[in-house]
Protein backbone atom coordinates (compact mmCIF):
# COMPACT_ATOMS: atom_id res chain seq x y z
CA UNK A 1 0.00 0.00 0.00
CA UNK A 2 1.39 3.42 -0.98
CA UNK A 3 2.17 6.04 1.60
CA UNK A 4 0.12 9.22 1.82
CA UNK A 5 2.29 12.27 1.28
CA UNK A 6 2.36 14.97 4.01
CA UNK A 7 1.06 17.51 1.48
CA UNK A 8 -1.92 15.33 0.60
CA UNK A 9 -2.66 14.68 4.27
CA UNK A 10 -2.60 18.42 4.90
CA UNK A 11 -5.03 19.07 2.07
CA UNK A 12 -7.39 16.43 3.46
CA UNK A 13 -7.25 17.99 6.89
CA UNK A 14 -7.89 21.46 5.50
CA UNK A 15 -10.88 20.12 3.58
CA UNK A 16 -12.32 18.49 6.70
CA UNK A 17 -11.88 21.77 8.56
CA UNK A 18 -13.78 23.72 5.92
CA UNK A 19 -16.73 21.44 5.33
CA UNK A 20 -19.99 22.28 7.04
CA UNK A 21 -22.54 19.68 8.01
CA UNK A 22 -25.67 21.24 9.48
CA UNK A 23 -28.31 19.09 11.17
CA UNK A 24 -31.64 20.91 11.42
CA UNK A 25 -33.50 19.12 14.19
CA UNK A 26 -36.66 19.62 16.21
CA UNK A 27 -40.18 18.48 16.90
CA UNK A 28 -42.73 18.02 14.13
CA UNK A 29 -44.28 21.43 13.59
CA UNK A 30 -41.23 23.26 14.92
CA UNK A 31 -40.45 24.89 11.57
CA UNK A 32 -37.53 22.69 10.49
CA UNK A 33 -38.34 22.48 6.79
CA UNK A 34 -38.94 26.21 6.37
CA UNK A 35 -35.75 27.13 8.20
CA UNK A 36 -33.66 24.44 6.49
CA UNK A 37 -34.64 25.61 3.00
CA UNK A 38 -33.75 29.21 3.76
CA UNK A 39 -30.55 28.27 5.57
CA UNK A 40 -29.31 25.98 2.80
CA UNK A 41 -29.86 28.74 0.25
CA UNK A 42 -28.03 31.27 2.44
CA UNK A 43 -25.08 28.91 2.97
CA UNK A 44 -24.97 27.74 -0.64
CA UNK A 45 -25.26 24.10 0.42
CA UNK A 46 -27.49 21.28 -0.84
CA UNK A 47 -30.49 20.44 1.32
CA UNK A 48 -31.40 16.84 2.08
CA UNK A 49 -34.77 16.55 3.84
CA UNK A 50 -36.15 13.28 5.14
CA UNK A 51 -39.80 14.01 4.34
CA UNK A 52 -38.97 15.08 0.78
CA UNK A 53 -37.16 11.80 0.14
CA UNK A 54 -39.85 9.75 1.88
CA UNK A 55 -42.66 11.32 -0.14
CA UNK A 56 -40.79 10.78 -3.41
CA UNK A 57 -40.27 7.11 -2.57
CA UNK A 58 -43.95 6.77 -1.69
CA UNK A 59 -45.02 8.22 -5.04
CA UNK A 60 -42.83 5.80 -6.98
CA UNK A 61 -43.57 2.72 -4.85
CA UNK A 62 -47.31 3.28 -4.33
CA UNK A 63 -48.29 -0.08 -5.94
CA UNK A 64 -46.36 -1.86 -3.18
CA UNK A 65 -48.12 -0.07 -0.33
CA UNK A 66 -49.34 -2.56 2.33
CA UNK A 67 -52.60 -2.22 4.23
CA UNK A 68 -50.89 -1.05 7.43
CA UNK A 69 -50.19 2.64 6.81
CA UNK A 70 -48.05 2.99 9.93
CA UNK A 71 -45.76 0.13 8.87
CA UNK A 72 -45.52 1.58 5.35
CA UNK A 73 -44.57 4.95 6.80
CA UNK A 74 -41.98 3.32 9.05
CA UNK A 75 -40.37 1.38 6.20
CA UNK A 76 -40.19 4.36 3.88
CA UNK A 77 -39.00 6.56 6.73
CA UNK A 78 -36.12 4.18 7.39
CA UNK A 79 -35.24 4.12 3.69
CA UNK A 80 -35.40 7.91 3.53
CA UNK A 81 -33.13 8.21 6.55
CA UNK A 82 -30.53 5.91 4.98
CA UNK A 83 -30.75 7.92 1.76
CA UNK A 84 -29.88 11.13 3.61
CA UNK A 85 -26.60 9.62 4.80
CA UNK A 86 -25.76 8.29 1.35
CA UNK A 87 -26.32 11.76 -0.10
CA UNK A 88 -24.19 13.31 2.65
CA UNK A 89 -21.32 10.96 1.85
CA UNK A 90 -21.57 11.85 -1.83
CA UNK A 91 -21.60 15.54 -0.88
CA UNK A 92 -18.37 14.97 1.08
CA UNK A 93 -19.95 16.22 4.27
CA UNK A 94 -21.03 19.62 2.96
CA UNK A 95 -24.82 19.83 3.27
CA UNK A 96 -27.83 20.78 5.35
CA UNK A 97 -29.81 17.77 6.59
CA UNK A 98 -33.31 18.14 7.99
CA UNK A 99 -35.19 15.50 10.00
CA UNK A 100 -36.71 14.93 13.45
CA UNK A 101 -33.92 13.08 15.25
CA UNK A 102 -35.73 12.62 18.55
CA UNK A 103 -34.79 10.25 21.35
CA UNK A 104 -31.54 8.89 22.76
CA UNK A 105 -31.39 5.73 20.57
CA UNK A 106 -31.02 7.89 17.46
CA UNK A 107 -28.00 9.69 18.85
CA UNK A 108 -25.79 6.61 18.49
CA UNK A 109 -27.12 5.92 14.98
CA UNK A 110 -26.56 9.49 13.79
CA UNK A 111 -23.04 9.53 15.25
CA UNK A 112 -22.17 6.33 13.37
CA UNK A 113 -23.58 7.68 10.10
CA UNK A 114 -21.66 10.94 10.49
CA UNK A 115 -18.49 8.96 11.08
CA UNK A 116 -19.12 6.98 7.89
CA UNK A 117 -19.43 10.28 6.00
CA UNK A 118 -16.19 11.58 7.48
CA UNK A 119 -17.94 14.23 9.56
CA UNK A 120 -16.29 14.85 12.90
CA UNK A 121 -18.14 17.85 14.32
CA UNK A 122 -21.58 18.70 12.90
CA UNK A 123 -23.35 21.97 13.58
CA UNK A 124 -26.81 21.27 14.99
CA UNK A 125 -29.65 23.76 14.66
CA UNK A 126 -32.37 22.97 17.18
CA UNK A 127 -35.71 24.57 16.31
CA UNK A 128 -36.82 25.70 19.75
CA UNK A 129 -40.57 26.02 20.26
CA UNK A 130 -42.94 25.05 23.09
CA UNK A 131 -44.29 21.54 22.64
CA UNK A 132 -47.89 22.80 22.68
CA UNK A 133 -47.20 25.20 19.80
CA UNK A 134 -45.38 22.58 17.74
CA UNK A 135 -48.23 20.14 18.26
CA UNK A 136 -50.87 22.67 17.27
CA UNK A 137 -48.98 23.59 14.10
CA UNK A 138 -48.50 19.93 13.23
CA UNK A 139 -52.13 18.98 13.79
CA UNK A 140 -53.29 21.92 11.68
CA UNK A 141 -51.32 20.67 8.70
CA UNK A 142 -52.14 16.95 9.06
CA UNK A 143 -55.08 17.13 6.59
CA UNK A 144 -52.80 18.66 3.95
CA UNK A 145 -49.77 16.38 4.25
CA UNK A 146 -48.71 13.73 1.77
CA UNK A 147 -50.78 10.54 2.31
CA UNK A 148 -47.65 8.50 3.12
CA UNK A 149 -47.68 10.15 6.54
CA UNK A 150 -49.93 7.96 8.71
CA UNK A 151 -51.39 10.59 11.04
CA UNK A 152 -55.05 11.38 10.52
CA UNK A 153 -57.13 14.32 11.84
CA UNK A 154 -58.62 13.66 15.26
CA UNK A 155 -56.69 10.46 15.94
CA UNK A 156 -54.73 10.33 19.22
CA UNK A 157 -50.96 10.32 18.87
CA UNK A 158 -49.20 9.11 22.05
CA UNK A 159 -45.79 10.07 20.69
CA UNK A 160 -46.37 13.65 21.78
CA UNK A 161 -46.45 12.64 25.44
CA UNK A 162 -43.02 11.04 25.08
CA UNK A 163 -41.63 13.95 23.07
CA UNK A 164 -42.79 16.41 25.71
CA UNK A 165 -40.57 14.60 28.23
CA UNK A 166 -37.52 13.62 26.19
CA UNK A 167 -37.20 15.65 22.97
CA UNK A 168 -34.00 17.62 22.71
CA UNK A 169 -30.96 18.13 20.51
CA UNK A 170 -28.56 15.32 19.70
CA UNK A 171 -25.58 17.32 21.04
CA UNK A 172 -23.02 15.73 18.71
CA UNK A 173 -21.35 19.10 18.26
CA UNK A 174 -22.18 22.75 18.89
CA UNK A 175 -25.93 23.30 19.26
CA UNK A 176 -27.52 26.49 17.96
CA UNK A 177 -30.92 26.85 19.64
CA UNK A 178 -33.10 28.93 17.35
CA UNK A 179 -36.41 30.42 18.41
CA UNK A 180 -38.75 29.37 15.59
CA UNK A 181 -41.93 30.72 17.13
CA UNK A 182 -41.56 33.59 14.65
CA UNK A 183 -39.37 34.76 11.76
CA UNK A 184 -35.67 33.85 11.95
CA UNK A 185 -32.79 36.11 10.91
CA UNK A 186 -31.32 33.52 8.55
CA UNK A 187 -28.25 35.55 7.44
CA UNK A 188 -27.26 36.06 11.08
CA UNK A 189 -27.73 32.36 11.81
CA UNK A 190 -25.62 31.45 8.78
CA UNK A 191 -22.89 33.80 10.00
CA UNK A 192 -22.96 32.13 13.43
CA UNK A 193 -22.62 28.70 11.82
CA UNK A 194 -19.68 29.81 9.68
CA UNK A 195 -17.98 31.26 12.75
CA UNK A 196 -18.48 27.99 14.64
CA UNK A 197 -16.96 25.99 11.77
CA UNK A 198 -13.95 28.32 11.67
CA UNK A 199 -13.53 27.92 15.43
CA UNK A 200 -13.67 24.12 15.14
CA UNK A 201 -11.05 24.20 12.37
CA UNK A 202 -8.80 26.45 14.45
CA UNK A 203 -9.02 24.16 17.49
CA UNK A 204 -9.27 20.60 16.09
CA UNK A 205 -8.37 19.06 19.43
CA UNK A 206 -11.38 20.58 21.18
CA UNK A 207 -13.76 17.64 21.62
CA UNK A 208 -16.33 19.41 23.80
CA UNK A 209 -19.73 18.32 22.44
CA UNK A 210 -21.87 20.11 25.02
CA UNK A 211 -21.62 23.72 23.92
CA UNK A 212 -24.93 25.42 23.18
CA UNK A 213 -25.67 28.86 21.76
CA UNK A 214 -29.15 30.35 22.06
CA UNK A 215 -30.05 32.25 18.92
CA UNK A 216 -32.95 34.65 19.17
CA UNK A 217 -34.13 36.66 16.20
CA UNK A 218 -34.63 40.38 16.67
UniProtKB/TrEMBL annotation:
It comes from Kitasatospora setae (strain ATCC 33774 / DSM 43861 / JCM 3304 / KCC A-0304 / NBRC 14216 / KM-6054). Pfam families: AAA_33. This is AAA+ ATPase domain-containing protein. SUPFAM superfamilies: P-loop containing nucleoside triphosphate hydrolases. It comes from the Bacteria.
